[in-house]
Structure prediction request, 320 residues.
Amino acid sequence: MRRLVALLLLCTALGAGPARAADACGNPPLPQIPPQRVVVVHQQAIEILLALGLEDRIAAAGYLDDALPPDLQTGFDRIPIRFDRYLATEAVAGLLPDLVLGGFAAAFGAGGLGPRETFAGLGIPTHVLASGCMTAGDDPVATAIADIRQMGALFDRRQRADALVAEIEAGLEALQPGPALTVFIYDGGEKAPYTIGRDGLLTRLLARAGARNAFDDTPGRWATVSWEAVLARDPDLILLVDTTADPAAEKRRRLEADPALAGLRALQTGHVATIPFSETVAGIRSGTAARHLARILAAARQSAADAPLAGDAPSPHNIP
Prediction:
């Protein structure tokens, strides 16, 4: 059966005509006919398709980082094949997809679904969202909006795409400048913390609200730094990134168990908040992330304004 599938796909490839130029992400041109069977990996890509109402086009989907929004979970549950980690290349090919979509370039890297060249040889188009292969200086929100519009055009869901973009733009309006706060975003790591760097979505959103990522001078969307640097920068607020594999509660316990880190100002004042990993990645949730950050920053600023006089014991606030 596997050989028959490969032969059929190879015949498709041979009849597909000459290859065309790839884009900046290494993507070949998208199909000219809306795909009917899509294999999609990574949460932000899955969420775009579900939000566009395309669950009936998804043959298989997986690799979630945290819970889906309730309004998308029903659609996800209707997908025939749902997986926790990457499927083998043969398994993907056996589903006869007419598009394999990834949220990050890792979809087609080592340990991923398989090399692009393998899928191309089988006549299977591949695509990585632009938000998954941004370079220095790219605007995460603008890139996510471009992804949404591109998928809306590909699947003839332009009106839905426009509505999703409008929701993002409305969410951004919640971020209003206020008193400066320095924020350490703790994404993971024990020996050395993994955080969001200069080009990350949250860095841009915080700046829009007059706050600052403590590591906004560190290149990249994500970066490994040092605990010594965290201590030296002693942030006003700690933002714990919540994932299924490494919950925010565990991250907080990790910080509080270390005698040196427990002395961080943010832990002493209780200026600690949680944000889902999916809100740290540019996508349909960028507006939701903006609203969430606006609430967190407002609570932290109010808490700081209500701080006790010198010599009084600080109250253990926990920012919602």
Summary: The chain has twelve helices and eleven strands. The radius of gyration is 22 Å.
